[in-house]
Amino acid sequence: MSTATVNTLAELVRNDKPRRTRRTQEKPDTVTTRFFMGDSGEGSISLTQEFASEVEAQLESLKLNRPYYTLESWRAVADLSNGSIAVQKRAASSRT
């Protein structure tokens, strides 16, 4: 006959190693995406109607059988903190 050992849950979970914590991540820039219907010409696009959400743009695209366009706005910023120039992209305001 064999015997079984019963351990409590606390004994099984106990870990003598120090817990590793997550590093705090920098908060990413919040980018506002804008949605448009547009007319495409020869090599150019004319954005005609803006929508409040992507769902609205998708529905209009489906009705008209035309593509919709998304627009994100970014700004280049020079970072001189390390003694050399590094170009970073930052989110621009949504209506710039």
Give the helices and strands, then pairings.
Elements: H1 9-13, E1 34-40, E2 45-51, H2 54-64, E3 68-71, E4 74-79, E5 86-91
Antiparallel strand pairs: 1-2, 1-3, 4-5
Please give the share of residues in helix: 10-25%
Structural class: alpha+beta
Question: In DSSP terms, counting alpha (H) and pi (I) runs of 4 or more, how many helices?
Answer: 2
| Strand order within the widest beta sheet | 2-1-3
Would you list the SSEs in sequence order as H and E?
HEEHEEE
List unreliable stretches of 5+ residues. Answer: none
Global Rg: 27 Å
Q: Note the gap between the termini.
A: 79 Å
Mean of pLDDT: 82
Strand content range: 25-35%
Instruction: Please give the number of β-strands.
Output: 5
Shape: elongated
| Main sheet record | 3 strands, antiparallel
